[in-house]
Amino acid sequence: MKQKYFDPNLKIFSLSSNRPLAEKIADEVGVELGKLSVDRFSDGEIQINIEESIRGDNVYIIQSTSAPVNDNLMELLIMIDALRRASAKTINVVIPYYGYARQDRKARSREPITAKLVANMLQNSGVDRVIALDLHAAQIQGFFDIPVDHLMGAPLLADYFIKQGVAKDAVVISPDHGGVVRARALAEFLKAPIAIIDKRRPKANVAKIMHIIGDVKGKKCIMIDDMIDTAGTITLGSKALMDAGATEVYASCTHAVLSGPAIQRLQDSPIKEVVVTDSIQLPKEKQIAKIKQVSVAPLIADAIKRINENRPVSPLFKSVFDRVNQE
What we know:
Elements: E1 10-14, H1 19-29, E2 36-40, E3 46-50, E4 58-62, H2 69-85, E5 90-95, H3 114-125, E6 129-133, E7 148-151, H4 154-163, E8 170-174, H5 180-190, E9 194-203, E10 206-213, E11 220-228, H6 232-243, E12 248-256, H7 262-268, E13 273-277, E14 291-294, H8 297-308, H9 314-326
Parallel strand pairs: 1-4, 4-5, 5-6, 6-7, 8-9, 8-11, 11-12, 12-13, 13-14
Antiparallel strand pairs: 2-3, 9-10
């Protein structure tokens, strides 16, 4: 553990989705993880027991709402209710991966806006603050009427590529028009130009590439997205980039969802490395040699300490930006 944190009223708890990340965050902050048990009745109902007093404490819960999404979300809601009834002073939810974020608007008639529904559920359960990492759509922050601190993974990914020597002669690739802002942020860290893959999506999890906007010939291409799910877009894009004359293709994202055929597609693709964060815990069967993980624990831990001490979170990004650009 790092140096012990000075505030005895700061408590960090981990639920089931990503305990390894929670342990790293607690270690970075300098506290022990809070004691609790998560059990299930024979019919699948979740039972949570907090095994220490949290009366008057500022509590931070670490829980990604990744697969199984509904179980992890329900677990989080039950934990929030338990904390509220146990007289926690503040309840702060750290969601490294926010499930249902892709359902952030009505794209067709009679569609729900499930990202807003999840925000309502969290807020109505008694949450005081949400700390999220690379939301699929930035406007999800506005779905809450409580403070939301939105952290960025791009500096961490940039740091990796710089240290690996990939940034030289690189082009940052946005896999679609909607990801240009994200690609530009990474490009600023790497001091690299950007290109865009023009695609259309005839239905969910199916992508068809049209053409590449920008010069990639003779360049190392770094594709960036907020998440990789079935890996269809990324793998099709990598093939198109190699056909257009790229020397190497790297893929990167904050959230490694990697569902369905994703692992096999990545294995069979011309992608040299897939750089992801540990916002979602990867089971052993998904830990292939191509996938490299960088930890978001120091970033989240620093944010927790700043929030707990009523210091601004925004300088956190400037300090990371300065550090990356000095190397």
